[in-house]
Design goal:
Blueprint (H helix, E strand, L loop, with lengths): L4 H13 L4 H8 L3 H13 L3 E4 L3 E4 L4 H9 L4 H4 L5 E3 L4 H11 L3 E5 L5 E6 H8 L15 E2 L12 H11 L3 E8 L2 E9 H16 L1
Parallel strand pairs: 3-4
Antiparallel strand pairs: 1-2, 4-5, 5-6, 7-8
Helix pairs in contact: 2-3, 6-7
Bound molecules: adenosine-5'-diphosphate.
The site of adenosine-5'-diphosphate has 15 residues, from strand 5, helix 7 and strand 7.
């Protein structure tokens, strides 16, 4: 966040004199308390200053990058997850390709009859299966998918940064967001590199407000 010159000065005053009341800060700047109110609100919300009732403002000691890190660590998977696109295990490779196009996604999740996660299909998995002269209507996706237990998953309550790290470490484009059920894992969402990019943009644009 870009601080204004006046906000920087307020931080310096509070650093040296804190705890200090809004009234006293205003006096030092020859301004009215009302004029300072928005600046104090911004500095408090951004985490530079803290306010205690009947005591005043004090400096939290946090740097800009510490505050940014705190903000990123608050991002949860559930805030950014998208709707998953799934196919059944016995769907054909041809059907999966159609579903991938219609769903406008790059990763499909494969589920069994009770609706539990059993596999993942990437664009390249489907391209690979399409090489050669086989009839794609006759190849079920469970033959070519990456299967459980080798699937990397995440959960809605996980930190987004942990999921981003899994995408990098495993060199994959997407993760199913799963819910633990007695019969297995139900797919309730997906996190892809696009969701991470959106989070990144939101973080930076929010900072500029
Ligand atoms: P692409 O193969 O189109 O580049 P990915 O990098 O996402 O896309 O996939 C690479 C391989 O990893 C594929 O074989 C795919 O089945 C597998 N894969 C994709 N997502 C996962 C996941 N969440 N867990 C385990 N394996 C995955």
């Amino acid at each position: 966040m870009e601080l204004s010159e006046r906000q920087e000065i307020i931080i310096e005053i509070v650093k040296e004199n804190g705890p200090i009341t809004g009234e006293q800060i205003a006096e030092k700047l020859n301004l009215s308390r009302a004029t300072l109110r928005p600046d104090l609100a911004i500095l408090t919300m951004a985490g530079y200053l803290d306010a205690r009732p009947r005591v005043g403002y004090f400096f939290t000691g946090k740097t800009g990058s510490e505050l940014l890190t705190e903000k990123v660590k608050k991002f949860k998977v559930k805030q950014f997850q998208s709707v998953p696109v799934v196919v059944k295990e016995d769907a054909s490779v041809y059907d999966a390709i159609s579903t991938m196009f219609l769903g406008d996604v790059g990763t499909l999740f494969v589920v069994n009859e009770p609706g539990c996660l059993t596999g993942v299909l990437s664009r390249k998995d489907l391209l690979r299966a399409s090489l050669g002269n086989q009839d794609l209507n006759n190849i079920p996706v469970h033959i070519i998918m990456t299967r459980m237990p080798n699937i990397t998953v995440c959960r809605s309550e996980d930190l987004l940064i942990e999921s981003a790290k899994k995408l990098i470490d495993k060199q994959i484009d997407g993760l199913p967001v799963v819910k633990d059920m007695p019969e297995g894992l139900h797919v309730i969402g997906r996190i892809t590199k696009t969701n991470i990019t959106k989070a990144f943009v939101e973080l930076i644009l929010d900072e500029q407000v």
